[in-house]
Design brief:
Blueprint: E1 3-7, H1 11-22, E2 28-32, E3 42-43, E4 46-49, E5 61-65, H2 69-78, E6 85-88, H3 90-93, H4 97-120, E7 125-128, H5 129-137, E8 147-152, H6 156-163, E9 169-179, E10 184-193, E11 204-213, E12 216-219, E13 226-229, E14 237-241, E15 244-248, H7 252-260
Parallel strand pairs: 1-2, 1-5, 2-4, 5-6, 8-11
Antiparallel strand pairs: 3-4, 7-8, 9-10, 10-11, 11-12, 12-13, 14-15
Helix pairs in contact: 5-7
Length: 274
């Protein structure tokens, strides 16, 4: 029996765990993650450990995957750990077709429900970040960790009221963002599709709140808000995906280039946080 360490218990770490389970090998799996040091959690009945535990315990391999591979590799090197590292990219983490198909179906049901409620109640919205990227790349949205939707922050009360009663998903308000423009707080809203967590990652809708004023907008973030030109959100275009007409910002190619660089349209096997 091999002892396999997964560095990171976020989306990509959990995907790595499921891929190991698919192989049906009798491995002992250990999760380590810097983000769960103060608030220990458990996934798949596995405790999330402080990475420093690797200084005391033996292991056969460490799997590194996701956006923070470079930072994880450096941290391990600082511990004196340089061997038996395995790097997994998108192709290694990709679920089976059956799981992707099921997750895609759930995504479509959820988005159809949300878009219908928003359109019927005059709530402005646009696909943003990961959602927009997948649509413009003509990618299966089920391959993305989440689907981002831009909203007017001022609509949050109406949005929560519309979405809180659904058999398809659960809604969560995680924490508050502070708007310098409005000088008040707005909640972070996330929707999680209902599914078998051991089988797949829940389809996740992440709402990106923006405060619009004049020809600019303030994108609300946890640490620091960003002031941007509102031209892309001055109207919308539509892109078709599985019989859904999804609203996207104007001049979306230029917007994506600004977000992800010149090669935004190419899906890299390895990608890194800035």
């Amino acid at each position: 029996m091999k002892k396999i360490v997964i560095f990171g218990a976020g989306y990509h770490g959990r995907m790595a765990y499921r891929k190991l389970q698919e192989k049906k090998l009798q491995n002992e799996i250990l999760f380590v993650d810097n983000g769960f040091i103060k608030k220990p959690k458990v996934f798949f009945r596995e405790k999330i450990n402080n990475p420093k535990i690797l200084l005391k315990q033996s292991f056969d391999n460490i799997i590194l995957c996701g956006r923070y591979i470079k930072q994880q590799k450096k941290q391990l090197q600082d511990y004196g750990i340089k061997k038996n590292l395995i790097f997994w990219g998108r192709s290694d983490l990709k679920p089976k077709k059956k799981i992707l198909s099921l997750r895609s179906k759930k995504y479509i049901e959820i988005l159809k429900d949300i878009f219908g409620k928003f359109e019927n109640n005059n709530i402005k919205f646009w696909a943003d970040y990961s959602g927009l990227l997948a649509l413009k790349r003509k990618q299966n949205i089920a391959e993305m960790s989440d689907f981002d939707i831009c909203i007017n922050a001022e609509d949050y009360k109406k949005i929560i009221k519309l979405l809180k009663k659904s058999k398809l998903y659960n809604i969560e308000t995680r924490y508050n963002f502070y708007s310098k423009i409005k000088k008040k707080k707005f909640p972070k809203i996330v929707v999680y599709g209902k599914c078998n967590f051991n089988q797949m990652e829940p389809p996740t809708i992440d709402f990106i709140p923006r405060v619009f004023y004049g020809n600019k907008n303030e994108e609300l973030k946890l640490n620091k808000s960003i002031i941007q030109n509102s031209e892309p959100w001055s109207g919308y275009e539509k892109i078709k995906y599985n019989k859904l007409d999804i609203r996207i910002p104007k001049n979306s190619d230029m917007y994506l280039k600004k977000l992800y660089g010149k090669r935004w349209h190419i899906e890299e096997n390895f990608w890194y946080a800035k």
